[in-house]
Amino acid sequence: MKSPARFRRDPRSLKLHLALLGLGLLILQPALAKQDDRNQPMNYSSKTLDGFNAPNTVTTLTGNVVVTQGTMKLTGAVAKLYLDADTQVARAVVTAPAGGVAHIEQLDDCNNLMQGDAQQLDYDNINGIAVLTGNAVVKQQGRGEFHGDKLTYNTQTALITGEAGGDGLVHGVILPKAQPGVPAPAGQVASPTCHPNAAATPATPPAAAPKPAGGH
User: Fold this and answer.
1) Contacts of 149 (CB under 8 A, 6+ apart)
2) pLDDT band at 33, cuts 50/70/90?
3) DSSP code string of the chain
4) Neighbour count for residue 26 (Cβ, 10 Å)
5) C-alpha dihedral (88, 65, 120, 105), degrees to nearest 10
6) CB-based contacts of 138: which residues, under 8 Å, 6+ apart?
7) What are phi and psi of 201, to 5 degrees?
8) More confidently predicted of 102 and 211
9) Residue pair 83/92 in contact by the 8 Å Cβ criterion
10) Kindly report the CA angle at 88 between 36 and 92, in degrees rounded to 5?
């Protein structure tokens, strides 16, 4: 897996952000989805169901659709679940209810929440890539948010690409890194420092207190 790209906070960074916005290409700070989610069962509920639990078939869920797998959650009006040759869900396409949005959310390995909303969500369950189309919004807790007509978010690498239709623009907000002892601005949820890949360091037991002279 390629290492996620990182922003460098220096004067050139602002120019880089503006250039990326102009091209419709944005890169989020690393926030990889929980790696264990893909090993969990996929559960779903809806008003109606039409499909087969068989290889290379499509199952259609309609009405108050909720699909979950570990911390990943999809909601919408209609969902089509594409099963592969191994009868595993390879892809899920979710459309929004009238006047509403299709929604995806998932925790990363630091328990920070990623949320996405759009008129349609096309989720590649094999590669962990979500394509959000129509008034798309992606938000990451304590990191920032991005808006566009179409956003493609890779939950495995935290790479996001954006497109704007017509004369519109891709736009977003990148939050500053929280500093120790400095409270987060109003309305901003601080993102805790987390190093999910760091090896745990065993605690060192306190040294035994010296015995008094004479052994009493």
Assistant:
1) 133, 134, 135, 136, 163, 164, 165, 168
2) low
3) -PPPP----SHHHHHHHHHHHHHTEEEPPP-PBPTTGGGSPEEEE-SEEE--SSTT-EEEEEEEEEEEETTEEEEEEEEEEEE-TTS-EEEEEEEPPTTS-EEEEEEBTT--EEEEEESEEEEETTTTEEEEEEEEEEEETTTEEEEEEEEEEETTT-EEEEE--TT---EEEEPPPPPTT-PPPTT-PPPPP--TTSPPPPPPPPPPPPPPTT--
4) 23
5) -80
6) 28, 114, 115, 116, 132, 145, 146, 151, 153, 160
7) -100, 120
8) 102
9) no
10) 85
- Mean pLDDT value across residues 132-144: 91
Q: Looking at the predicted structure, is the pLDDT value of residue 215 above 60?
A: no
Residue type present at position 167: D
**Residue 75 and residue 102 in contact, taking contact as beta carbons nearer than 8 Å:** yes
Q: How many residues does the chain have?
A: 216
Strands 102-107 and 113-118 come out as: antiparallel
